[in-house]
Amino acid sequence: MSIGGSTAAAELAALTAIDHRAARPPAIPPADHQARIDQAMRLTAQMPAGALLIGAGASLRYFTGVAWGATERLVALLLRRGRRPALVCPAFELGSLKEAMAIDAEILLWEEDENPAELLASALAGFETLALDPSAPFGLYARLREAAPILKVADASPIIDGCRGRKSAAELALLSFAKAKTLDIHRRAAAILHPGIRASEVKRFIDQAHRTIGADNGSTFCAVQFGRATAFPHGLPGDQELAEGDIVLIDTGCQIEGYHSDITRTYVYGEPTAEHRRIWAIEKEAQQAAFDAARPGRTCESVDDAARLILERYGLGPDYKLPGLPHRTGHGIGLQIHEGPYLVRGDRTVLAPGMCFSNEPMIVIPDAFGVRLEDHMYITEDGAAWFTQPSPSIDKPFG
């Protein structure tokens, strides 16, 4: 599929004709949620702690199947040694939460005029230490300390990261499907480009395309940047208009059963300049170096180092200086689009099979242009494997 020459209507019609449900992997089964809870309790005991509290958000969905965003009202999973899992929630939300639950759990209800921290304190009577979700708000921690002053509170990061960091085969399948669909939409977005098209038109097409393939809620995000705006990793304000010879950077993703895609492609509408070609080739080499360095037993920061060494070889950087790579080489991905661990200096997490990362060592030429090639990879016993194949060349970005 080439750059330009098609229309949004034609590409959406082609997507509509495909049965996307046929290849869609199943949702995470209830047995997997229970296995995750069992693993969490084993890690909690090793801390040591007697109980674990998981707040609303991605981790709650991971353990219970409940896709519930954090608000000022406490919704949480409480795990206690020797007890059934318990779901803490406002009484008036019980019906909605029960419909989404994938586990068998005790229900602990609180009314609008009650302090849920007091309910937690009562449920934790007899337990010395609580491991608390690091994403829980400080206000909850403060109220809990007031309601249960003798309760010790520990950081639950090692437990949550120990469970969520290494993806199962079912998770990898959902991630793979999401990324494959987003890459196909990238190809179709390139096909609808023409001089004068606005970034907002491209974003609207990408969102409609993600909805057509059955993504949870259309695009989770979409950045469309032309020309000079590509020199800024997250773009510039305003609705840009494409011109002949502009470098194009599109970064977008979706969710399938909560699992994220996040892919970036950079190419030129028209004929690339010599400098476009030079920087694009260095970017591709740096992305490949990061991929080659991502092996079990090595550290996250060593992958970042591998990409930066390539850039320095061509006189870019060093470190985070421009022209060069101003941000980390990659991030973990799963039920959150950015989750730990990270491919960045200082993150000494040891790579292990099942870990998933973006690979995006962007090169920025200040006030001129930027090139970001972003694909995702997962760690296997033998090294890294791509979810999606990287862009082959600046002239044929989709092969």
UniProtKB/TrEMBL annotation:
Domain Creatinase N-terminal intervals: 36-164
GO molecular function: aminopeptidase activity; metal ion binding; metalloexopeptidase activity
Keywords: Hydrolase, Metal-binding, Metalloprotease, Protease
One GO process term, biological-process aspect: proteolysis
Protease found in the keyword field: yes
Stored Pfam families: Creatinase_N, Peptidase_M24
Residue ranges of coiled coil: none
Alphabetized PROSITE patterns for the sequence: PROLINE_PEPTIDASE
Domain of life of the native organism: Bacteria
Domain Peptidase M24: 178-381
UniProt keyword annotation of Protease present: yes
The protein's name: X-Pro dipeptidase
Organism whose genome encodes this protein: Niveispirillum lacus
